[in-house]
Write a structure and sequence with these properties.
The protein is α/β, with parallel strands linked by helices. It folds into 2 domains: about 200 residues; about 45 residues. The chain is built from 12 helices and 8 strands. Helix 3 crosses helix 9 and helix 10 packs across helix 12. It starts with a helix and ends with a helix.
Length: about 300
């Protein structure tokens, strides 16, 4: 790694940067709009509390517990991973998700997450009137609902009267494109920053600085990137083998192996916001495969 790139990591020893060179550029480019990085930052109660204070415009809210990359089961017993699950002092539950792709922020996805919270907050014998209030909050990189607003609040209402239904279920979309001098606009600015020194909110800047400029924090993130790469690689391999078996032919197996590689590369490009070449380097793609993979991904 060149000297100028070493200089991009203040507070980190040169030897540490060299030893973790293949992850350091990825770490440098992480923003709060990257869900895996966001999940680590907002595992901190103070950060999660600031986020909810601004989005809900409630300074009295106290976060009692917060979990990053929290697994929750659906009715079929399959685990679904939530970016952030927080609980406040009144027992209200908050699911906060980063959605960089429009299709990931589909209205039915929000409804599904809301139903997951409800299903996991009830136990046999519970009275329905005691069901906890829930919030599903999607922070979207683009204006998914396309009305040019910084924030959208969705609650069920009675059409005939225009009054709220009052079932305690809330969905909120936050448009990360709206950056201005309001508290929410400043927060969305911070979500787009790669450097702690460019951020408005000291609480968030301190946490980002810990993961990017502190050896212990940076080590944690390097291990996270490594786990992401391994998971994407294994997922792609499984998909490729499944396709090969289905074809039952040598050609099918060959195509399966190629699809395996392309699937893993696409997934890690999206997860880590990196180029195809950076993803291939991270996944140690053979030189003989790189040209054809570039062409297929560019299609």
């Amino acid at each position: 790694m060149e000297t100028e790139k070493l200089d991009a990591f203040p507070g980190l020893p040169e030897e540490f940067v060299r030893q973790n060179a293949k992850y350091m550029r990825l770490l440098q480019g992480f923003r709060l709009l990257d869900d895996d990085f966001m999940s680590k930052v907002f595992e901190d109660k103070e950060c999660a509390q600031l986020l909810l204070h601004i989005i809900l415009e409630r300074s009295d809210l106290i976060v009692q517990e917060v979990h990053g990359q929290y697994s929750i089961k659906n009715l079929q017993g399959r685990s679904v991973r939530l970016d952030i699950l927080a609980v406040d002092h009144e027992g209200k539950h908050y699911n906060i998700e980063i959605q960089r792709r429009d299709e990931g922020a589909d209205a039915r996805r929000a409804r599904y997450n809301s139903s997951l919270l409800d299903a996991n907050l009830t136990h046999p014998g519970d009275r329905y009137e005691n069901l906890r209030e829930t919030y599903v909050i999607f922070i979207t990189e683009r204006d998914v609902l396309k009305a040019g607003l910084p924030i959208y609040h969705i609650d069920r209402m009675i059409q005939e009267t225009g009054k709220p239904f009052g079932d305690g279920s809330h969905i909120i979309y936050v448009n990360a494109q709206c950056k201005n001098d309001t508290p929410l606009g400043k927060l969305m600015h911070d979500f787009s920053c790669t450097q702690a020194s460019d951020m408005h909110y000291p609480v968030l800047a301190k946490r980002v600085r810990y993961f990017k400029e502190n050896v212990k924090g940076a080590t944690t993130m390097c291990r996270e990137v490594e786990k992401i790469a391994m998971a994407e690689r294994n997922e792609g391999r499984a998909e490729g083998h499944a396709e090969g078996r289905a074809e039952g032919l040598a050609e099918g197996r060959a195509e399966g192996r190629l699809e395996e590689k392309i699937g893993a590369i696409r997934a890690i490009m999206e997860s880590l916001s990196i180029s195809v070449d950076e993803a291939m380097k991270l996944l140690k793609t053979p030189e003989s495969d790189k040209d054809i993979i570039r062409k297929l991904i560019a299609q």
